[in-house]
Amino acid sequence: MTVRAQFRIWAIAFVVTIVFLYLLSDILLPFVAGMAVAYFLDPVADRLEERGMSRIWATIVLTLIFFILLTLALILLVPALGGQLSALVEAWPGYMTRMRAFMATFSDGALSGLLPDTSDLDHLSLSDVLGRFFSLGTGALQNLASRSIAILNFIGLLFITPVVSFYLINDWDRIIERIDDLLPRQHQARIRTIANEIDKVLAGFVRGMGSVCLILATFYAVALELAGLRFGLVVGITAGLISFIPFVGMAVGLVLSVVLALFQFMPDRPEMVLVILAIFVVGQVLEGNFLTPKLVGKRIGLHPVWVIFGLLALGSLFGFVGMLLAVPLAAAIGVLVRHAASGYRESSLYWGEAGRPAVTASDDIQIAEAASPLPPEDPSGYEETSNDG
Predict the structure, then answer these.
(1) Any idea where the domains of the chain sit in the sequence?
(2) What letters, b where the CB count within 10 A reaches 16 and e where it falls short, cover 29-45?
(3) pTM of the complete model beyond 0.70
(4) How confident is the model at residue 298 (pLDDT cuts 50, 70, 90)?
């Protein structure tokens, strides 16, 4: 079979896969979530096997521990988060009124026109305030609730995800072996190399950055609550969980916290605003100097702009499922692009019809290093995050 015929077959398979994912995006959430859990826990299952535990028992123990801890976290956090969100919605009209009054002191009041008029919101109920200020989000929720597929998704997320996770953790190594057995023999070695590099990049980002986000969410939430900031739990968890988007998590958390601190503490306790600022400065120092180098590694091959673009693009196409798939696909595409660039540098399209000129051994080494699809291994823990499966 010619290279052109092979390319045509794989291109058709790729298009069919994308169409399949798009058509079934409404029901993919529990399966994508289950795959993510299995990918995250597979190395732990491998280590338990190395210590003498059977695969089935390792799978049972890990699945139970993970979902028990997740359930406990939801039981403890959801009521507190719900209460703070309700209080924030109720307090929001007053905050907006005070902000308008503050901005009216500048430019003869012209800046206050940038904010919506909230003078008529004090008598409204909580549901009315929700409708006025979060109409887009509320409309989306109502639209989802009116569709039976949303109910199926919710039920699937609760009950199907643990089942999918259990079977995938238990059969992960066998699945990898069967996929490897189906690889075209002619390109098997190269596909294995690319797959291993994707796995290293993805493991370094997902497992490492996931741990960083959880630690930062805990730190910000606890620190802001101890500082006495109203709604600190909501702001802290939000800032921590979106910290995988470079600088966005810190920026969102800092702006929200400082604005809330200004409303709550000014003018009586201005030093508390500095305390809130210090919390996020400490969080950034902790992330940049300790958490990210140790848990993620300095060079994982995913540029921040590429991550943001992947989240926005796939989120617009597939919704929440697309956002879950954004980082894995961004990692895979990034590695494929680097390999394509490496092949391009070795091709006649790059060198021209005359072909690659004669080079010395040192020049050859420099060209190979420039075309390398991944940077050298990082001693900061990059290898420890790779997937053993």
Answers:
(1) 25-182
(2) bbbbbbbbbbbbbbbbb
(3) no
(4) low
What is the C-alpha to C-alpha distance for residues 62 and 158, in angstroms, rounded to an integer?
17
Give the pLDDT band (50/70/90) at residue 353.
low
How far is 130 from 139, CA to CA, in rounded Å? Answer: 10
Token digits of residue 80: 């507190």
Residue-level pLDDT at 377: 47
How far apart are the C-alpha atoms of 177 and 14, rounded to whole Å?
21
Percent of residues, the chain, with pLDDT higher than 70: 71
pLDDT in tens, 179-201: 888 888 877 888 888 888 888 88
